[in-house]
Prior knowledge:
4 copies of one chain form a homotetramer.
Chain A: E1 2-12, E2 14-20, E3 27-39, H1 42-46, H2 56-69, H3 75-89, E4 93-110, E5 113-134, E6 141-155, E7 180-190, H4 197-214, H5 220-234, E8 238-247, E9 250-252, E10 270-273, E11 278-287
Amino acid sequence: MYTLSANQYGKAEIHLVRIYRDSPRHEIRDLTVTTSLRGDFEDAYTTGDQSKVLPTDTQKNTAFAFAKTHGEGAVEDYALALGRHFVDNDEFAREATIEVLVDGWDRVVVGGAEHEHTWVRRGPERRTVRVDAVGTGDDQRLEVTGGVTDLVILKSTGSEFHGFHKDEYTTLGETDDRILATSIDAAWRFGTFPADWDAAFDAARAALVGTFATWHSLALQQTLWQIGQAVLDAVPELAEVKLAAPNKHHFLYDFSRFTVEPPIPNDNEVFHADDRPYGLIEATVTRS
Amino acid sequence: MYTLSANQYGKAEIHLVRIYRDSPRHEIRDLTVTTSLRGDFEDAYTTGDQSKVLPTDTQKNTAFAFAKTHGEGAVEDYALALGRHFVDNDEFAREATIEVLVDGWDRVVVGGAEHEHTWVRRGPERRTVRVDAVGTGDDQRLEVTGGVTDLVILKSTGSEFHGFHKDEYTTLGETDDRILATSIDAAWRFGTFPADWDAAFDAARAALVGTFATWHSLALQQTLWQIGQAVLDAVPELAEVKLAAPNKHHFLYDFSRFTVEPPIPNDNEVFHADDRPYGLIEATVTRS
Amino acid sequence: MYTLSANQYGKAEIHLVRIYRDSPRHEIRDLTVTTSLRGDFEDAYTTGDQSKVLPTDTQKNTAFAFAKTHGEGAVEDYALALGRHFVDNDEFAREATIEVLVDGWDRVVVGGAEHEHTWVRRGPERRTVRVDAVGTGDDQRLEVTGGVTDLVILKSTGSEFHGFHKDEYTTLGETDDRILATSIDAAWRFGTFPADWDAAFDAARAALVGTFATWHSLALQQTLWQIGQAVLDAVPELAEVKLAAPNKHHFLYDFSRFTVEPPIPNDNEVFHADDRPYGLIEATVTRS
Amino acid sequence: MYTLSANQYGKAEIHLVRIYRDSPRHEIRDLTVTTSLRGDFEDAYTTGDQSKVLPTDTQKNTAFAFAKTHGEGAVEDYALALGRHFVDNDEFAREATIEVLVDGWDRVVVGGAEHEHTWVRRGPERRTVRVDAVGTGDDQRLEVTGGVTDLVILKSTGSEFHGFHKDEYTTLGETDDRILATSIDAAWRFGTFPADWDAAFDAARAALVGTFATWHSLALQQTLWQIGQAVLDAVPELAEVKLAAPNKHHFLYDFSRFTVEPPIPNDNEVFHADDRPYGLIEATVTRS
Lengths: 288, 288, 288, 288
């Protein structure tokens, strides 16, 4: 006997751009949206009967429509409206998850002035929004998680790594001055909703970046713990911060092997930025 | 007050190649290994004390060493040995996860004969192995999950999609003959260990591919349910199969818009293979 | 004074799938097509007048249409028809280039028999076709270039590298037994057209792969020279072969640094497959 | 008879990071370097004799060493020094090409002040430098080409496309107000060397971006022609500008198909950002 346990379906990576043309100074919003529905969908699997299945194509259409009809507030407001739409209006959907990646665009400066309708893409960092909408009416639960992904950050000093555990396979040297570089994925879950989603995002991101820069690091683990606390400090509405950070290794290049005259000093200035493998440190910091 | 909740660390994407040179007919194994440890590592976060932290560099060294010292059996045997090594020998690690992606290589055929030491890469499909090792001694729990990722598969008929739920945003037409294409990620968890890991893999993969091909599909959901059951049927040691399948849309190209003479028939032969967005269907099938 | 020199325009990466449904045993062809036109298009640049510019959207439509109307022969025949269409029928286009990447699909085997309408993707290797069509009528010149891209190939012995030039920055050790791995991009230009495009491709590819396997290599350079000659030998209609081959380094992992007992032998079996940087060797071999 | 015609070899994608630690306010330079040598290297191909071949590993070592010993000036100075090194010091190399991709990093701002040793990655845009060094002594020719790659730029109005050539496959509608988005690859070749490489880069990039923003576009072709002229105007030392620009299509989403009340206006605000295919427009503008 077999059971259909966890299951969901939706539309992934809907890439939509909303332009705001109310004044000659346009605004742009660039979203990649993924929708997922969970609910009374077992028949679609077990008998092939699709009569309760709202097509993923319809979910896509709705994501585009809501960019127009529910696009005035923050991205979080848009995602909440979209998530609520599915659980409130689709009698067979009991839970909806809306995930949004926000690509950044910087307004072009021409002759010292910001241009009204031209931007260049800013990356690789992207803001993230996730909404989980569960149930309807008074029992409805709405959860919002903000964050950033691919925030690549590097400090050229202020990072040590030594005193670690060793075994018969350990060859790593200890260091009291290394490059610390990572690409942070952070997801912060709101316990209550803030008055201003964008201000909350700005405060959380500033705490993250500022702590990475200023905390003298004994390990990436310690830096993550400090970042988690700083983000929770900065945004009182947050309940929890999840952090995943690859240790993007920068190996000091060893010039002592060369016979060039005069010898080139190994003075901590030239590094090989390696791709793989990389350390991967993960931590969740929770408000108690 | 803040709490460090879930946390782990390890080395990701260790790309190692093992050659077996015992006879002139060499063998090759191409693995991308990720290790993660969980245990008594809070101090590394909260005080920066690394005395319990086995460096990720050491984990990498160990993964390479075990490719030599524990590389004779199946990939699952290698991953089990590596996972057990960490929990058995590192007094601070209580849990270890080893994830392996296996790249396939096909032996080159020259003049009708298989070459002894040359291969071409086969992809994009990759076999996957995951081992979770928890605890030591009699209480140790070892869990093995096999699978495939990026198994891109397409059928040119034998797939319908109609009778679905509609709302005011629905524009999709119904069809009783479409291309069904996906890139399957499957992860099958073993309840007990099979006598032959490779035979189990082959049986599970054959069930997956065969069911996709032969099941007349009323929806990708239904196909996944059938695949899940077939895989469990094929390998009695399996407890559960998780499936995630993007619906890689192939849109019939509409020639009726052209004024070319004679008109080109829209006879279900020429399709635009679109990248994004895509439907994403997920299901877990469990042996009860 | 400024001049508009080289210029062209077209549609890139048109991903089309053609199914052949003439019998229950379907066939599939998966093409990614790029078109480029050169001709009397200066006004589009200098004055913005588009009256001579066939939109890239039209080029795309034509690529799809020709997949139906000119899809019966080899991919080369399709590309020739498409390229000739633009120079023969568009009075402003004097030259057209059609580039095609062909994704491979392997028919699924179920119960020992090939399935009639289901395939799995074979990669990463792709066959390539390029057609250059210049002029019309008797002066028309049609050039066809075949090839492969991303043919990842590895031999575990039969490769040396020593006796090289050294300077004060040289640290590389010499070796008489190393892994040789690369990802070959080859483009072979036809001087005359063969009777059977597919047979010519098969012969060229077999010569390439067979030579890589069987030639005892003193350097990747030498292997490329041998491959170029072998391909020209195999297909008499070819005038020239261009080869580009990254040296995908596999570094022997040094176990002598570990203190584990018994020591692990460094016996040329376990390698780190590095991503970047890589050597890049390029050569063109021409029939004189 | 076969001839070895064009051939070269080198090291690709050497990813090096140089930190300048002369004061507490560090500086960072992040380079991905590719070297290629051409010269007296035929024996390496035809006989396997490597005695004239400076290993690509040595080229890599040299690229790292020069980041320290020749890293004080602009990236162009570094690339010139590296290119000249090979042709001046390696008796068998007659030509060297050095290609550099420069990743941007923005200094982190903490509490309103720029941090001294922490940066976040800025992308996807990258500055490019290419040096071709040919020959030695008085006959030596040094050519420098600057540029940008992956400069993703979008304007939400000020772009039309109409009056184009039509044939029996044309279905595209005309528009007098569309989104124009592209990812510009530009390469500008210097006829003479400027006093300040960085100032020249800034002027060229500003001309490119400013022209894209302010020129009312009748086609991407016309915009490229205007950009080419503006860049040549801005930097008198430039001889030529090569531009390649994909037309990253943003399709207006058609809300008229929905039955939602009230109807959603199709007012040029919500677009589907499509991945493939894309128009690809290329032009070279030369100072006469």
